[in-house]
Every structure is written in C-alpha cells, then in structure tokens.
Write a structure and sequence with these properties.
Length: 394
C-alpha cells in the first residue's frame, strides 16, 4: 500500500501541506483531519471590522481538497502516539500514519490576563481567530457612540501576525474618522517596538492625525488586569475605561501540540529547519503558527511556504531520500486605509539549526512614498489574498 500521511489542522498551513503532498505526483495517501466544515481566514478580517468587507468573504471550504483525492475527516485529533504512529480522534476512532504533519495554529491564553478568561472574551473580544469574535467586535464598534474610546491591547512577542494589531488600529481609525470622528483609539502594548512601525506611524500622522495613541511597554502599555463588567484595562501605570475593548491575549501552539509532546516550555514547537520534523517527537512535522520557525513571522504566507517545503521533505523521506535545504519567502501586507498598503518581505534559510533571514534579500516599503505606490500595494495585498486562498482552498 502507498504510504499514508495524516495532516492535522486545515488552516493555511495544514491545507497547503495536504494539497502540496497530493500534487507532488508521488503515490501517497493523504488524510486531512479538521473539525470545522468551513475555514474562516484571518487575513483581511481587519477590513471586516472596519465595515469594508463582508465576513462571508472570509469563508473557505474543503471541496477542492476532496476533489484532489484527499480524504477529509471532520473530527478533532485528541491524542497522538508518535511511537505507535497513531492518532486518536474525538469521535472515538483512530488513524494510523507513516508520517504526521501537525498544523493546529494557536491557542489563546485567555486566563493569562487576570479578569479576562472565556467570559471576558465575550465582552472584550480578541477577534484573533476570525469568525464569531470578528462579528462581535464589529457590532460593538457599530453600536459605540461618537466620542467613545476604543482600546486595543497588543501582546508581547511571539504572536500570530506581528503587524496585525497595527493594521487593525489603522482600519478601525478609518471607520471612526468617517463615522465617529470625535472618538479616540488607544493601543496598549506589551512591547517597545512593532513590525513596520515607522511606516504605520507615518500613515497615522497622514491619515488620522491625533486619533491613534500608542503606549509602549516602557510607558505603561502592558495590560496586567481587566474588568469585563466595566471594560476597564489596568496597566502598571494606571487604568483606562474603554467604550470598546479589543484584548489580544498571549498565545501558544494549539492544544494538541502539547498533548502530542511536541511543544516545549515556551508553548511553541521546536523543529528541524530543513524538514520541519519535531525535535521532540520523530515522525511528527510541525508547520504554521504552532512552529518555532526562527526569524519567520507567524503569517499565512509563512504557513503556506513552510507547508510546501515540509511536503517536499516528507515525500523525499518516505521515498528514502535526503531532503534538500529549502529557501522560504514571506511577505506581509498591511492596510493603513483601503487604498493605502505597506509591506515587509523576507527570505529565510536554515542556518545553525534555525530558519534565519537571508541578509539583503528582503525589505519594507519605502517611507515618504507617493499615494500611487501606497494604492498599488493595497491592490497587491488583495491580489495576494485571492491567489493564496485560490491555491489552498480553490
Ligand atoms: P490556523 O489558520 O489557525 O489553522 C489551524 C487549523 O487547525 C484550524 O482550522 C483549526 O480548526 C485546526 N485545528 C486545531 N486543533 C486541531 C485538532 N486538535 N484537530 C484537528 N484540527 C485542529 N497572515 C498573512 O500572511 N497576511 C495577513 O494579512 C494576515 N492578516 C492577519 C490578520 C489578523 C487579524 C490575524 C489574527 C491574523 C492574520 N494573519 C495574516 C496570520 C494568519 O491568519 C495565520 O498566521 C495563519 O492563519 C496560520 O495558519 P495555521 O494553519 O498555522 O493556523
């Protein structure tokens, strides 16, 4: 019988890997384990918050994968035995595999912020896993009176989508400027710097002067406690009462990673930088947000690039070969307004056991660029989303 690869998690990482394996042409049986009937994409969900896009545009199904001959199993993996090469599903059944690709994304540590927790997230949504939470935060912004204070609490590194909180601040400001111009937006940050910072700050000065205030860690930005009943966020320097609060808690690899023994004490999964095989459990490969991918940011673009490299390595290993060192690319686009895009790009390769950035190969959008340059980057962002979702889910 042909070798069997099980893929756990049908997000950008897992779905890309399943497809890439099937399309290698090698004779491999592929099973994708994913409990949700449809995937809700996070990229462009900040545009949903700003009322620029329908949540429906974020949904993708698995029919394309089935047409490719991938066996899609609608269940959650609850346990993985690396030695026996078996995984257990929440419907009580089991699945044997020759190699496993694990791509469970993130778990939000809701209890890491005192006063937050699962019930706090219903009042002060994180909207860091798109779907119901995105819709909730959108409704709160729509219902807010003009003149209200919107607070975004951003986590320390590492976390999913490093530029995401700042794109979110920009697009929410875009909505406030047009519909609730007396309102203010405060970012409470558990860090002293952030991705594409100078570009975002330039955009905020040009587009939303006086609307957005960013408070860094050193100036009391880290949220130490919240009170959901009054929407109060407490920091080391004092407290802030919000009309709408978006609390993005710290994160770790999806729970199945720890259950399978592939997460370390950081909560993330150490991997071999050529094959993405776990450094803790042989036979299990980890890709996407759950993995410790060195200098690569936790993005859908990275997840997709890692998936293709990992699929090639798994196919080679199953054929008894020696996988070659990959080169991986990431580009993260952000919108500061619907017609104002900025980006950061990088190329990565294995170096001393980690994925390291290739010097001089990447870069960020220029400062002081013309409106035309910003508008074309916004168009590239949209084209990127259509291309990647078409490739992965189409
Ligand atoms: P996920 O997409 O979270 O997929 C994980 C999947 O695994 C889920 O479908 C889940 O149901 C499944 N799963 C979990 N546990 C189990 C289990 N036990 N058994 C079976 N299945 C399981 N990235 C970009 O590149 N560009 C952007 O512009 C961008 N914008 C973003 C904006 C926001 C607001 C946010 C929050 C993120 C953004 N990202 C962006 C980041 C991107 O969404 C993530 O990096 C990407 O989704 C990671 O893919 P993944 O497959 O690792 O995880």
């Amino acid at each position: 019988a042909p070798p069997h690869v099980a893929v756990v998690g049908g997000g950008f990482a897992g779905a890309s890997a399943a497809r890439a394996l099937k399309r290698q042409g090698a004779d491999i049986r592929v099973t994708l384990v994913e409990p949700k009937a449809r995937y809700t994409a996070c990229p462009f969900s900040n545009a949903v918050l700003a009322g620029l896009r329908d949540l429906d545009a974020q949904y993708f199904g698995y029919d394309g994968m089935k047409r490719d001959g991938i066996d899609v199993v609608a269940a959650s993996a609850t346990a993985i035995d690396a030695e026996a090469r078996r995984l257990r599903l929440d419907d009580g059944s089991g699945l044997a595999f020759d190699r496993l690709i694990l791509a469970p994304g993130i778990d939000l540590m809701l209890d890491a912020i005192p006063g937050y927790g699962a019930s706090g997230a219903e009042v002060m949504p994180h909207a860091w896993q798109a779907g119901e939470q995105t819709a909730l935060l959108r409704r709160q912004l729509e219902a807010m009176d003009d003149g209200g204070l919107v607070v975004i609490a951003a986590p320390a590194n590492p976390f999913r989508c490093p530029p995401g909180p700042y794109e979110r601040a920009s697009l929410v400001a875009h909505y406030l400027k047009a519909h609730k111009p007396r309102s203010k937006l405060l970012i409470l940050d558990a860090k002293d710097s952030f991705s594409k910072q100078r570009l975002f700050e330039e955009a905020w000065e040009q587009l939303y002067p006086g609307l957005i205030e960013w408070v860094s860690l050193s100036f009391g930005g880290r949220v130490t406690e919240v009170d959901a009943a009054t929407k109060t966020l407490t920091t080391e320097f004092g407290s802030h009462q919000a009309a709408v609060a978006n609390v993005i808690p710290p994160q770790r690899a999806g729970a199945i990673a720890a259950a399978a023994g592939v997460a370390d004490r950081t909560g993330w999964c150490p991997i071999d930088s050529v094959t993405f095989e776990s450094r803790l459990r042989p036979g299990i490969h980890v890709i996407g947000d759950a993995a410790i991918a060195g200098a690569m940011p936790k993005s859908a673009f990275s997840a997709n690039a890692q998936a293709k490299a990992c699929a090639a390595a798994v196919a080679t290993l199953l054929a008894g070969g020696q996988p070659a060192a990959p080169k991986l690319i990431n580009t993260c686009y952000s919108l500061a307004a619907p017609d104002y895009g900025i980006s950061i790009a990088g190329v990565y390769e294995p170096r001393e056991g980690l994925l390291a950035e290739v010097a001089g190969a990447g870069g960020v959008s220029p400062l002081d660029a013309s409106a035309d340059v910003r508008a074309s980057e916004a168009a590239y962002a949209e084209a990127w989303f259509d291309t990647i979702t078409g490739e992965v889910f189409g």
